[in-house]
Amino acid sequence: MDQHRRDFIKMTGLGLASAALPPVDTAMPLARPASAQLFNMCNYAAPKLETVRIGFIGLGNRGMAAVERMNKIAGVEIKAICDLREGKVNEAIQMVAGHGHKPQGYHTHPEIWKRLCERGDLDLVYIVTPWALHTPMAVFAMNHGKHVCVEVPAAKTIDECWQLVETSEKTRKHCMMTENCCYDFSELLTLNLARQGFFGEITHAEGAYIHNLQEYVFDKERFYQMWELKELSQRTGNLYPTHGLGPICQVMNINRGDAMDYLVSMSNNDFVMADTAKQLAAGDADFKPFVGKPFNGMMNTSTIRTKNGKTIMVQFDVASPRPYSRIQLVSGTQGAALKYPEPARIAKGHEWLSAEAYKALETTHTPPIVKKIGEAAKQVGGHGGMDFLMDWRTIDCLRNGLPLDQDVYDAALWSSVGPLSEWSVAHRSNSIDVPDFTRGSWKTNAPIDISMEKGGTTGVRL
Ligand SMILES: NC(=O)c1ccc[n+]([C@@H]2O[C@H](COP(=O)([O-])OP(=O)(O)OC[C@H]3O[C@@H](n4cnc5c(N)ncnc54)[C@H](O)[C@@H]3O)[C@@H](O)[C@H]2O)c1
User: Per-residue pLDDT averaged across 57-83, rounded?
Assistant: First the structure.
């Protein structure tokens, strides 16, 4: 027994009692042992592509909207489209025909997406399927020489996070998780202000995904074969951490000067979903498999400490009847920003600045990307325009040979909070180490470049 543990036992007087307690193992089961980074994908610039040739997999609610947005970006060729459902494939093919795209359709067989990834004439595979398919599809696509955009969360397990990192490093293909909230207007303003030192040193931030989805997850038509209800009935923790985390991690330069160190997570019980499932099952056999399942708690709260001594809090609640919120609190030594409840606010002290003062800051500190493409993005829409800003920026970076704003380490780290929170909740909220997916390069990786001094050459076809 080491001196530290002997001192602890003496100090707490636990003596005999502690002998019966198993030590808390903060190493994540299934976490891969750290080995050397194969290649640093942070700020990696792939060779320029004049035209970005895209194949889409998954054409549900979100995937169809992604096709629609890409259809409005110049320098894009939509060459392949895949979904299990033939009707969705035909709908998407028709939608893009007006802009001269003639994609080949792939459908029906659950692994037909592999034929799409194997094509020799695609640069980017854009994955918008249920969570369990994200990593297998992304890894397969990268191994077949394609850059990847993959919806949130990119991975469900720590092992999957490592698969993404190792495959992206090995193939030198981008693996960007399409965390669209990083491109929302007030998040971009906060990032720009932070870069200019407006908040001083950022010491703490809070994010969340609080969105009452009960109506949707119990709707048989909303999500393909109720995949999201299945997730919520099998796991407990923060299953969807990336919307809350993405923008604040960029503000705090996580993976680029700082790193997550360890995490503590707590969930309350489910007080509604099991009851709803039982009631529905009484009249509809499709809900019978959900009866008696260990549904996720209503609210999960996870806190994370960084290597540089900062803190992050992130919450998840899709069951409570309350207004939507991603919180987006950024707190620094000289000021703070808070997005929700809207309107977004900024403070330099005890009081929030007036609406006029906020407007003035917005005018003087409009981020370069918003100046360039903000109006077009608002016209196209997609969560108020952020989805289009994200897709346009991604295509513009690929066409100009620039690093993407989100790399595979961000995808892995932000997604990893899901399984890490599950572990902590299952272990009485004990702390767990957060893997360093950058394997030490966070110490020297430069923050993302939001100057737009390079690129910006991609047009929009409204
Ligand atoms: N970033 C955001 O704001 C945002 C918003 C909504 C959804 N999402 C994410 O988008 C993803 C899709 O969500 P959704 O709401 O569109 O779900 P959905 O159920 O509407 O769509 C999923 C689609 O995947 C298809 N699919 C399933 N298995 C397949 C397979 N083996 N091969 C080909 N296609 C297959 C289904 O037929 C369906 O059309 C999820 O990961 C979700 O988390 C992100």
Answer: 98
